[in-house]
Amino acid sequence: MTMPQYAAPADDITIAVGANLPRESGETAAMTCRWAVRQLARLPGLRVAAVSRWYESAPVPPSGQPPYVNGVVRLSGRVDPAWLLARLHAIEAEAGRRRTVRNAARPLDLDIITMGNLVRAAPDPVLPHPRATARAFVLLPLRDVMPEWRDPVSGQGLDAFLPGVAGQEIAPMADAD
Fold this sequence. Notes:
It contains four helices and six strands; from the N terminus they run βαβββαβααβ. Strands 1, 2, 3, 4, 5 and 6 form a six-stranded antiparallel beta sheet that branches. The longest helix has 14 residues. The radius of gyration is 15 Å and the shape is globular.
């Protein structure tokens, strides 16, 4: 498979990983998240540089869904954003995700948060992820893998955004099994 190359301003790519439903094969949400990290590690041209702790968080926006397992993976490498998004969608589909309604419960959700300092409004993926700085389930795990992270749009660091998500329900998981 030929992979298009992309010269991002930096080699750091951050991917949010989340799940709140078991897979049809029986794996728990936590097991699926760990499986997704292994799939990300297999993507050509990329390597896993760091994986955050796993967190349990309430769905955003609030709903009657089960809690999510969330984390962030820091990848190193340079790839085309559209190529990466297509690979993430393929991994989600392999995990059993079916895209139905927005914010539906799912066995796996993979979102590109940032690709270096790349800022773009179109085409997909929009970078940085437009809602990342308003979500504790992204910011807390992002702090684990990249404490020096700065929003490519505003230039602000994580500490500027954390007070705005302080009321969101999230806690590190003691055991991700």
